[in-house]
Amino acid sequence: xxxxxxxxxxxxxxxxxxxxxxxxxxxxxxxxxxxxxxxxxxxxxxxxxxxxxxxxxxxxxxxxxxxxxxxxxxxxxxxxxxxxxxxxxxxxxxxxxxxxxxxxxxxxxxxxxxxxxxxxxxxxxxxxxxxxxxxxxxxxxxxxxxxxxxxxxxxxxxxxxxxxxxxxxxxxxxxxxxxxxxxxxxxxxxxxxxxxxxxxxxxxxxxxxxxxxxxxxxxxxxxxxxxxxxxxxxxxxxxxxxxxxxxxxxxxxxxxxxxxxxxxxxxxxxxxxxxxxxxxxxxxxxxxxxxxxxxxxxxx
Length: 300
Ligand code: S3P
Hints:
Elements: E1 2-6, H1 13-24, E2 28-30, H2 31-39, H3 43-66, E3 72-75, H4 84-91, E4 94-100, H5 103-112, H6 125-140, E5 145-148, H7 154-164, E6 170-173, E7 180-183, H8 192-197, E8 204-208, H9 210-225, E9 232-235, H10 245-257, E10 265-270, H11 272-284, E11 290-295
Parallel strand pairs: 1-3, 1-4, 2-3, 4-5, 8-9, 8-10, 10-11
Antiparallel strand pairs: 6-7
Shikimate-3-phosphate binds at residues 9, 13, 32, 43, 77-79, 117-119.
C-alpha cells in the first residue's frame, strides 16, 4: 500500500510523511523535492522562469513515476489534486489522506518558512489562501481519509493515520508479486472499508452464511458503507454439507447477474466452509479475481 498525503500548503505533508516513514519503515517520496531535483532549481525559480503550466506538466510526470511504487509514503504538492490524472494514478494501490488545516494556521506556518511558495507571494496571502481553499476543498474532500492537522504535532497525525488504517496490526507475507497482508488485531473489521478501498474494486460481494451474517453483517456493511461501497451479499446455508459445486455454481450465477467483472472483489466472511468456497470461486470466476478472507473461526 502507498500512503499518499494531500492537502494545502503548510498542512504538514512533508513532516507527517517523515513521521510515517520512520514509524512504518517505508521510504518517503516528496514530489516537490523530486521536481526540484529533476529541474535542478527550486520551485520558486521554476515558477518564475518557466511558469505554472510548465511546473504542472513536470509534476504530472513525477506523479506518474511515484505512483508505480508500493509500500511508500508520498508527500505531494498542494496543487496535485487539480489534475484528475494525478489522483487516478496515486489511487492505484494507494490510500489518499487529506491533511486538513485551518487557514489561519496555514498562514502562520507558510509565512514562517519564507518565500518558498510562489503562489502565496502576494500582498494579502490570507485572502489568497481562502480563495485557493474554496477552489480546492471539493477536490481534497475526495480523499479516502481525513486528518485535521491544525492543532496537533506531526507525530500525532502520523499515529492517527496508522490507527485509521490498522497498520500496526499488519503482517506482510512476502512472496514477491504474490505478497499479501494479514491484519491481526482488535476491531479490524471496522477497517474493512478503507482497506478494501485501496484496491479500487468495481464491485464488492460478501460471501457468508446466515449465522455469521447475523453476528457480523451490520459491522461489515457499515465499514464498507463508510467508504461508499454497498456489497452484494451471497449466502450459503450453514454447514459442511453445503461445501459442494451446486452452491459454488449458485455463487457464480449471483455474481454474473450482478455483472461482477475482473476488477471486482470477493470477501469471504465466515469459517472454513465459506473461506474454501469463496476462495474457489475467486480463483475460477473469469479466470480469477481478487478476494479477501475475513475468518470468523480460529481454524479458518
Ligand atoms: C503548490 C504547493 C507547493 C508546490 C508549489 C505549488 C500549490 O507544495 O508544489 O508551490 O499549488 O499548492 P506544498 O504544498 O508542499 O507547499
